[in-house]
Task: inverse folding
């Protein structure tokens, strides 16, 4: 499981995909299409966390 402040770029998404991480949580930023495709291709579950302010 990986917790991030922002959705990863495509380069970081590739590193995450190769690392074997299965769950990704992020709170800010929109998922970029390339990064999302890479992560979904290897079965990473992506969850956006909405924080109360």
Result:
């Amino acid at each position: 499981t990986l917790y991030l402040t922002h959705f990863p770029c495509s380069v970081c998404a590739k590193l995450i995909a190769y690392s074997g991480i299965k769950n990704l949580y992020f709170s800010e930023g929109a998922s970029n299409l390339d990064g999302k495709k890479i992560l979904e291709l290897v079965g990473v579950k992506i969850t956006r966390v909405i924080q109360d302010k």
